[in-house]
Design a protein that fits this description.
Low-confidence stretches of chain A: 1-26
Strand content of chain C: under 5%
Number of domains of chain A: 2
Shape of chain A: globular
Mean pLDDT of chain C: 83
CATH topology of the largest domain in chain A: D-Maltodextrin-Binding Protein, domain 2
Structural class of chain C: mainly alpha
Chains: A alpha/beta (418), B mainly alpha (302), C mainly alpha (314)
Structural class of chain A: alpha/beta
CATH architecture of chain C: Orthogonal Bundle
Strand content of chain A: 5-15%
Oligomer: heterotrimer
Number of strands of chain A: 13
CATH class of the largest domain in chain A: Alpha Beta
Number of domains of chain C: 1
Chain lengths: 418, 302, 314
């Protein structure tokens, strides 16, 4: 990892130098970039972008907004609507920006995409599809993020004297032992999106990828109200007893810290959690372990982060926006950024020798297209996702809510979803 | 119930006169007051001592124990180098942003409101009372009703997410209570004074500038106190209308406190919280009675 | 106080030489000076409210669109369990704030009115939180109420090792954390208003009561409080309109959690307006908030107005 860093840095310099050639005709331009990457691992990853952009002669003006997408999105969207667009902004691609694109508020990147052949580079292709509206490309996918992971603290299991679980069922079975050792089995942050994500992972793990396709992609009413879904709600209901009753933690990375410190056994969280383990100096397979698809049904939902470039009046800014878009998807930046972030690169043609155990597991799963499903942001509007989040957060925190009621309310939201 | 109430507010207590120093009555009375005072002081005390402790001490000790070893590092970090995202510049950026928002907002809103109040007291015209009534209702309209249309209005004025935009917003939302304040104050000015000036041929602006302004200094101080604390403490307008590069201190505080990189640094968070509250607290401690009179006059209206 | 101002069209100077003007031009400077106020009331308060109400009947997503759908947004709003929780919470918060801040505020004011020593010190202590931002208040109490570090830990250290007090992560009680923090900030203000009201009461009342041998508590209960009715009503309206607006405090203290157990209407509007891209839903919620405020306000305004009329003519 250390050795490779130098290589990567020089590679970035080389790449940005060639970009600089492209840019040298224009003046250096400052672009403000808004995002909600504020945890340790995330900030390190953003720095890769910023450094590469600055190396090309432009200036990256960082506009981080703390407190997850739920806090940041209102700020970002109100600014675009309010006519003061930033140079570039992170959004989860898919339907978050749909309307803003339709309204012509986002820069059309089609020309650049065709020139650089994004269509052939980006894998899986659904990522670029999520950026495309009426045949035109409006965003740059920068990583593949999947929520489908569970992170376990091997230290915690050692302390409790049980074998670390290989899948969800073993984890549930081991929970009482952890409790005896004074360890809380499951670490959960209180923000609602985390509960919703966790439910998605348990759903995929226990119900399998076919069920997920039926419910989320095809919206098959029988599957949505079916027996399997009912049993999943029951399992999720039972999992409510696994977390810390007195949990006072909001952020996902604070929950990850609990796993890192071994006070909690496991966390269900997306692959971005990996960046935290890395920042803490831990190694996969030694201090912690990762179970994709709860160790039962390996699958990846390809949500991810993408950057949009709101339309600017100043042609120089537009040129700089294109330079930034090109930089973000360039080979060396993709490698370095994703290693820091703990996510997978969107290009299939990069060498990830430096990837750690967990990322390799992810890459392996990614090889089989059958394992890939679209992420929630691509399937549902923010409106629907918000309602689902509220419902599942309520179910998770309210022991009086029965799985049957939750299932019914959930199914109703699916049926009414646009 | 008019502003004579607020003017006499702090003169004489009216309760029955106490007899002896130590009596059941006094024990109950002072006991109640002291217990209440402890409840109100406790959070401030905890904030201050926490901000002066090192992280290990926080994890070990209890929140009420005074620091074994006093350190100002959390304060320095909160001001200078606490991080959100890539920028580790602490609260100082937010502080200056808040100052930049505060000064024009206070001046403009008070100027407009004082003229309003003056016009409403001495120069009523047809419909002026109707506008004033609507304005008063405006003080109670939930901000949420106006958030989105104001985004559109500011966009059309090319003011969205700029200093000018947020200043305009503060002027709008400050207008009801300030206008009321000035209207009530000018209403207590003897009418003869105004009439005499009119006979001398003085017009609208001359009377305002030469007669009314010099004699209304106290109410201006009250208005300034109200606006300074109100604008400084604003969060909602700052986060929506000021734009990321103009985020005021409260927004930056929330940002810093909510982005943890590694461990949660409670001492830095507390220092940041205190720093954000410092200016209104200073204004409050210095102004003392005027502050009370300000809120009483602003709230208990005629 | 308003009756001495009613006829100040100030025709005095009209006679001093200048020609008679068109009625619209009369009093021109005052009208020009009032332009900002007129704009703010018409465009700002009235215009924006009307706009929001109109668009609450549309299916607007991120951007406003004229796609009218009748009462659909309201149907969904009233069906939403989060909105129900928000309304329930604002009721709990409201009742607790009103009862405790009025009750404690009045008691404090009475105590302060007993010719006590250190009156200024006590007043300073009770009132200082009012100078702070809700964000600051929220963060402080989040720290104090933290079940691992805060007050709970102190009590455990004293010897009650099993003591559990963690209302922030308890869905039944999280709203009371907001109540506690809100009261800490606002009660001193109520006390100041009450004290101003008490000091406004005629000394002679007390003398008369003492001559008649009426005990102090009875004087307060049956004479002073009824006399302070206007102060109580005004305070009530101020507290009530503040309750509907609470937003920053929840954001800083609980962010609505755990689950949706401490959500409030203002946050519902904010979340759906920008982040979750359903403007119609957000505006329907804000319209309901506006109606609630008007329901509180109009009877009060009517009362105030009719009282003034009586005063003028009586």
């Amino acid at each position: 990892m250390k050795l490779n860093r130098k290589l990567i840095v020089s590679a970035i310099a080389a790449a940005t130098a060639s970009l600089g050639g492209l840019a040298s005709s224009a003046n250096a331009t400052e672009l403000e970039v808004t995002h909600w990457w504020t945890s340790g691992g995330e900030a390190a990853a953003v720095k890769v972008f910023a450094d590469a952009f600055n190396a090309g002669g432009d200036t990256w003006k960082d506009g981080a907004i703390a407190g997850s997408g739920g806090t940041a999105r209102p700020v970002i969207i109100s600014r675009i609507i309010g006519g003061d667009p930033m140079g570039a902004t992170q959004l989860n691609h898919g339907r978050q920006a749909e309307e803003l694109v339709e309204e012509g508020l986002m820069l059309d990147l089609t020309e650049l995409a065709e020139k650089e052949g994004w269509k052939d580079l980006v894998r899986p292709s659904s990522l670029l599809d999520a950026c495309t509206l009426d045949g035109k490309v409006y965003c740059v996918p920068v990583n593949i993020h999947s929520f489908q992971w569970m992170w376990t603290s091997l230290d915690a299991y050692k302390k409790a004297g049980v074998d670390a679980p290989a899948d969800w069922n073993e984890f549930v079975a081991s929970a009482p032992k952890l409790r005896e050792a004074g360890i809380t089995p499951l670490a959960v942050g209180a923000q609602t999106w985390q509960t919703n994500g966790m439910f998605g992972v348990i759903r995929m793990g226990l119900g399998g990828i076919d069920l997920f396709r039926k419910t989320d992609v095809e919206r098959d009413p029988e599957a949505i109200r079916g027996e399997t879904m009912a049993s999943i709600f029951k399992a999720f209901g039972e999992a409510r007893s696994l977390d810390d009753e007195n949990n006072s933690i909001q952020n996902w990375n604070d929950a990850t810290s609990q796993v890192i410190n071994g006070t909690h056994g496991a966390q269900i969280m997306g692959d971005w959690a990996q960046g935290e383990f890395q920042v803490a100096g831990q190694t996969a397979g030694v201090e912690y372990d990762c179970l994709p698809g709860l160790g039962i049904a390996p699958a990846l939902d390809t949500g991810g982060d993408a950057f949009y470039f709101p339309v600017q009046d100043d042609p120089e800014k537009t040129a700089a926006q294109l330079r930034m878009a090109s930089m973000m998807i360039s080979k060396p930046v993709q490698v370095d950024f994703n290693l820091k972030k703990g996510s997978l690169p969107v290009r299939g043609d990069v060498d990830l020798a430096a990837a750690n155990e967990c990322m390799k597991k992810g890459l392996e799963i990614l090889k089989d297209p059958a394992n890939i499903v679209p992420g929630g942001d691509q399937l549902f509007s923010q409106d629907t996702l918000g309602q689902l989040e509220d419902l599942l957060a309520e179910f998770w925190t309210n022991p009086d809510m029965t799985p049957e009621d939750a299932h019914d309310a959930w199914a109703t939201l699916y049926e009414e979803a646009d | 119930m008019d502003n004579t109430l607020s003017n006499t507010a702090l003169t004489e207590p009216h309760g029955p006169r106490p007899k002896r120093l130590i009596s059941t009555r006094n024990i109950v009375l002072y006991g109640f007051l002291i217990v209440a005072a402890l409840y109100w002081l406790l959070p401030l005390y905890v904030m201050i001592i926490t901000s002066l402790k090192g992280l290990p001490e926080i994890r070990m000790g209890n929140v009420f124990s005074p620091p074994v070893e006093i350190t100002f590092a959390p304060w320095a970090k909160a001001w200078d180098s606490a991080c959100t995202g890539l920028y580790c510049e602490g609260l100082k950026v937010g502080f200056w942003n808040s100052v930049k928002i505060l000064i024009p907002s206070t001046i403009i809103s008070i100027t407009i409101a004082s003229v309003n109040g003056y016009a409403l007291s001495f120069w009523r015209f047809k419909g002026s009372e109707i506008f004033f009534t609507i304005l008063l209702f405006g003080a109670f309209i939930p901000y949420q009703v106006m958030l989105y249309p104001l985004v559109i209005i500011l966009r059309e004025l090319h003011l969205f997410s700029s200093l000018g935009g947020v200043v305009l917003i503060h002027t709008i939302f400050g207008m009801p209570i300030l206008t009321l304040l000035f209207r009530n104050y000018f209403a207590s000015v003897p009418e003869e004074l105004f009439k005499a000036a009119r006979v001398d041929g003085a017009g609208f602006w001359r009377i305002f500038l030469q007669i009314m302004l010099p004699m209304s200094l106290p109410i201006f101080v009250v208005a300034i106190i109200l606006q300074v604390t109100g604008i400084w403490n604003d969060f909602l307008f700052g986060i929506i209308y000021a734009g990321t590069h103009n985020f005021p201190m409260t927004v930056q505080l929330n940002n810093i406190v909510n982005s943890t990189q590694g461990v949660k640094e409670y001492n830095v968070n507390m220092a940041a919280t205190l720093l954000t509250g410092l200016l209104p607290l200073i204004v409050y401690f210095i102004s003392g009675k005027l502050f009370v009179r300000g809120i009483a006059a602003g709230a208990v209206k005629g | 106080m308003s009756n001495n101002l009613t006829n100040q069209q100030a025709p005095a100077s009209e006679a001093t030489g200048r020609q008679r003007r068109h009625p619209l031009l009369r009093n021109l400077s005052a009208k020009i000076a009032a332009i900002p106020m007129v704009l703010v009331t018409l465009v700002g308060f009235v215009g924006c409210s009307v706009w929001s109400i109109v668009y609450s009947f549309t299916s607007s997503k991120s951007l406003p669109r004229e796609t009218f759908v009748g009462l659909k947004q309201y149907d969904r709003l009233f069906d939403s369990s989060r909105w129900q929780a928000s309304v329930e919470n604002v009721a709990i918060y409201g009742v607790c704030s009103l009862v405790f801040s009025l009750g404690v505020g009045f008691l404090l004011a009475v105590a302060m009115d007993q010719k006590i020593r250190f009156e200024n010190t006590f007043r300073t202590i009770f009132l200082y939180p009012f100078a702070l931002s809700f964000i600051v208040t929220g963060l402080v109490w989040q720290w104090l109420l933290n079940g691992d570090f805060g007050i709970a830990q102190v009590i455990r250290d004293i010897g009650f090792t099993n003591f559990e007090f963690n209302i922030l992560s308890d869905r039944e009680y999280s709203i009371y954390a907001i109540v506690i923090a809100g009261l800490w900030q606002g009660t001193g203000f109520v006390m100041a208003l009450m004290l101003a009201g008490l000091r406004g009461i005629d000394q002679d009342i007390w003398k008369a009561a003492r001559v008649d041998g009426i005990p102090a508590w009875r004087t307060y209960l049956f004479i002073v409080i009824p006399m302070m009715k206007p102060v109580f009503i005004t305070t009530l309206v101020i507290i009530a309109s503040g309750i509907v607006k609470v937003f920053d405090l929840v954001v800083a203290l609980t962010d609505g959690g755990p689950g949706v157990s401490s959500e409030l209407p203002a946050k519902y509007v904010y979340d759906w307006m920008f982040g979750r891209g359903n403007l119609g839903q957000a505006l329907a919620a804000s319209t309901v908030m506006l109606s609630t405020v008007l329901i509180i306000l109009i009877p009060w305004a009517y009362l105030e107005y009719s009282q003034k009329k009586d005063a003028t003519h009586g």
